[in-house]
Design goal:
Pathway: Steroid biosynthesis; cholesterol biosynthesis. The protein contains ten helices and 17 strands. It is α+β, with helices and mostly antiparallel strands. The longest helix has 24 residues, at 213-236. The chain binds ligand DP6. Ligand DP6 binds next to helix 5.
Length: 389
Amino acid sequence: MADIITAVAPVNIAVIKYWGKRDEELILPLNDSLSATLDTNIMYAKTSVCARPDFATDEIWLNGKKESFESERLKNCLISIKKKAAAEKSVNNDFLSWKIRVCSENNFPTAAGLASSAAGYACLVTALAKLYKVNSDVSAIARLGSGSACRSIYGGFVQWCAGVDPQGVDSFATQIVDSSHWPEMRVLILVVADHKKKTSSTDGMKISVQTSELLKHRVQHIVPKRIDEIIDAIYDKNFSKFAEITMKDSNQFHAVCMDSYPPFSYLTDVSHTIIQLIHSYNKACGEVKVAYTFDAGPNACLYMLQSEVFVVISLLKHIFPSSNPEFVTGLTFIPEVPLSTEILQAIDIEPQATDLIKYVIHTKIGDGPSILSDGLHLLNEKGEPINIH
Ligand code: DP6
């Protein structure tokens, strides 16, 4: 078992969105993006890897199912780590020639439509870097798996610099502040019931790059300023500024999707009701207390300070009644000031049908990937997956 390496890696949620590539193969973005890394105690990808001389081919299992190793993105990550190891002479050539086994799982449902590829590729690359004894930055290699994965290589708030180099040598992630900088920050992920077939991020951004004038404007004139402003808001722990930029950037990303031709939309009626609810709540508070952001799907991600969690959860339960006894999972929260009747009256949204929100994950900002030393691997001593569905 000593040769099996197991890593865990976090999910990240962008507050300034990556949308559009300048190079499809190298996964180089048109604009900088910025995200918060979420706590791996609540949501994580876990990956075990090992290399042995008797393995005939490279093999991979994802969430208990055997998958093909033929994906270009997967192969690119493996080749790049091996190249780095060869350049750094960290392992010998025999070891580099051995085939590998990879087994990976998320502890949150992939079907929930939560960004799982970012955590998954960050985890794979972290485990491979340990296997091949690569010590330098591997965010640019995680980027080759899925663009947003490069941001999951660091904890806290993380910026992915788009860079200008055609080969992408300057396109990697850097940490803005670590997870201890803003300890009061909390995140609620609202998993919305939805069965709509959706356009993948990869396909959606391709259409936007080819057709959206708004995307060009965003890349040139909007994002650079927003990146500077949100970094200042994070340094100063200015929540209302942070929240306003976050919501505006989510809205602009979804406007770009509608400005694409043909247009596509990730937001459902429930997503729009959540948007309305948050604006209504902030207005009733007389201050921006909660921010929403949406990725390529209908689930909302809400940012707020710890003091707001109890009242926001009460409000969600009131507007989105649920039959789920475990409606809120993740971190426990301390009941504080209850939802006041004044606030409820000021919010002009009626309670909705039951179970439009399936459940809520309560989490916070966390650290980057880590290597597990507890021996709880996903591969057994023969190098076979332990859980197969
Ligand atoms: C909307 O990283 O999934 O979540 O690079 O093609 O794999 P590929 O796309 P992906 O796109 C994420 C888009 C987003 C915004 C973000 O995370 O910044």
